[in-house]
Design brief:
About 30% of the residues lie in helices and about 15% in strands. It has seven helices and ten strands. The strands form three sheets. It has a six-stranded mixed sheet with strand order 2-1-4-6-7-10, sandwiched between helices. Helix 1 links the parallel strand 1 and strand 2. The chain starts with a strand and ends with a strand.
């Protein structure tokens, strides 16, 4: 099958899914001698448009894992904004060293239902958004080399003339319930309504957090979070003055639990 265009689609509030997508897409482009385009669906406006592809496209979807599945506020975009038209798809899910759960099966099933042909997938370890000490600095140089190699092997499959068999990835289909975050006491940590707070003395009202928020939930004053918060940590990572943080007790207990039980290095997994 001739591939005329490669498109890297990513939702990436803290940059890890974007890094993986760019690495894989550039390797695919080099192997298939096809131009590479990027489609960043992190900004809210990008999730209000329609995107259609054909059988001569190769589309790479790269998303973070939230509680063992795709982010629930981003799933509607995958379900309603994309039409595959027979395009082949490569699926990447980045997770913070705990578990990727059913995210790959969920992504595979959703893109298949909308006309894509998944041919390869990867579960990629990335620095945890809640706790930078978990998988710190990942994807690192070794990870990126492995992703590039995976993309080279995927390119060979994409170019093959034979029909592809259904892609087998770990997880339940349909996807099971979202993982329930736990605190240090082992009980559910209920922080659904938690929002970042701001140290007003440090905040310079630069607007970086307003722009970075993928839900458009931070007001122009850079302090008020009037909309929904998905705990993505984009505002915290983006703030040049380190003025934003979470102080919710349940959230902090969950973060401490992760740091206590999930520090052992996990490896990436690739499926072709």
């Amino acid at each position: 099958m001739a591939i005329h265009r490669i498109t890297a689609v990513y939702f990436s509030p803290t940059g890890n899914a974007r890094t993986a997508a760019r690495c894989a897409a550039q390797s695919l482009g080099a192997q298939l001698e096809a131009p590479v385009a990027e489609l960043d669906i992190t900004p809210p406006a990008a999730r209000q448009q329609q995107y259609a592809f054909t059988e001569n496209d190769l589309v790479l979807f790269s998303l973070p894992v939230y509680a063992g599945r795709l982010p629930n506020k981003i799933l509607p975009c995958i379900q309603s904004c994309f039409t595959g038209g027979g395009a082949q798809a490569v699926l990447l899910c980045s997770y913070g060293n705990r578990s990727f759960g059913d995210a790959l099966t969920e992504l595979r099933d959703e893109v298949t239902a909308h006309g894509f042909l998944p041919i390869a997938a990867a579960a990629l370890v990335s620095e945890h958004a809640f706790a930078q000490a978990l998988a710190s600095g990942r994807p690192d140089a070794d990870d990126l080399a492995a992703i590039a190699d995976f993309a080279r092997r995927t390119a060979q499959k994409a170019a093959a003339a034979s029909a592809h068999t259904p892609l087998d990835v770990p997880g339940s289909s349909p996807a099971g319930p979202y993982y329930t975050p736990l605190g240090m006491d082992g009980a559910p940590a209920k922080f659904l309504k938690a929002k970042p707070v701001t140290d007003a003395a440090r905040c310079t009202r630069c607007g970086a957090c307003v722009t970075a928020c993928p839900m458009g939930s931070i007001d122009a004053d850079c302090i008020t979070v009037s909309g929904i918060c998905i705990k993505c940590q984009a505002c915290i990572k983006t703030c040049p003055e380190q003025a934003k943080f979470f102080e919710d007790a349940a959230f902090l207990s969950h973060r401490e639990m992760l740091l206590t039980h999930y520090t052992a290095r996990k490896e990436n997994q690739f499926f072709l």
